[in-house]
Amino acid sequence: MAGAEEKEGRHPTNEYRDRGKGDGFEIEKPWISLNTETEISLKKDVKIIILIVLDTLRWDHLGCYGYDLPTSPSIDQFAKEATLYRYAFSTGSYTVPVHASLLTGKYPSNHSLFFRQLDGELNVGREITLAEILRSRHFCTAGFVGSCVLRKEFRFDAGFDVYDDRMTSHEANRPKALIRDGFETNRAFFDFAKSNSSEKCFYFLHYFDIHGPYTKDVQPNLFPLTAYGKIPQPLERVPDGFPGGIPEYQLLRIKRDAEGNLIDFEKDRRFYLAQYDRG
Prior knowledge:
Layout: E1 33-34, E2 40-41, E3 48-54, H1 73-81, H2 95-104, H3 130-136, E4 140-144, E5 162-164, E6 169-170, E7 178-179, H4 182-195, E8 201-207, E9 237-238, E10 246-247, E11 255-256, E12 262-264, H5 269-278
Parallel strand pairs: 3-8, 4-5, 4-8, 9-10
Antiparallel strand pairs: 1-2, 6-7, 11-12
C-alpha cells in the first residue's frame, strides 16, 4: 500500500490488520529483501509474485486509510486480509525515476536515471533489477505497463522474459503521450498468464488510469460536487511541475479560440477531485 505524509486522524482503522509493532514501523519481513550485494532471499514456498502499481493513486483517497467516500471497496477488502503499511514513502514524484527506484532498490540520486523523466535510460551494465534477480532464481518474468514513459527504450524491460509496452490510445490533452486502458492491460496480462506454464512467476503490472487528466466517469452519482464542499474552490493553472495549481495538460472542460489558444477551462477544484475519485 502506497502512502504519503501522514495526516492527523488518517490512521488505518482497527478493522484492518496491522502486523507491525510499536507505532507501525516494525512490519513483518517482506517476501523479498535486497542487500548492498544484490542478494535475494525468498521463502521456499513463494511461487507467484505480483507487483502492482497504480500510478498517482493517493493513499488518502482510499477507504482503508480513512477516506469517507466509496472509492476503493476492492482494495479495502484486500487490506483486511493483507499487511497494511501506515508509513510508505515514494522516492520521488515522477513516474520514470520512481520506477527505476522500485525495480533497482536505489534512490534516484544513486541509480543511472537519476531524477530525469524523459531523458536517458537505465544503465543495464551498472544496474541489477528485481526482474533479473528473480529470473536468475528460475522465475518467469513478465511486465505489462500502461504508459509510454515506461517503454522498453528506457530499459525497464531488463530482466523480463516478456515486457508488453503496447499503447493503444493517448492522453486527452497530449496526443504524443501514449497510454493503454487498464482493461486492455488486464487482457494482455491474463492472456499471457493463461498460456504460461511456468511454476514460478513474477508479474509487474502498471496502470495509468488514475493519472490526470481525470477523464474517467465511473458512477458519478457517488461523487457529487457537494461532497467536496458547498461552494466552488478556485484552482489556478500552473506550469508543468509546479505546485499550487493544475498544469495545462490536466485541464478539463477546455475552450480554445480559432487559433487554438486556451481561453477558458474548469476552475473549480471540487470538479477535479470528483473526477479523480470517479476514475
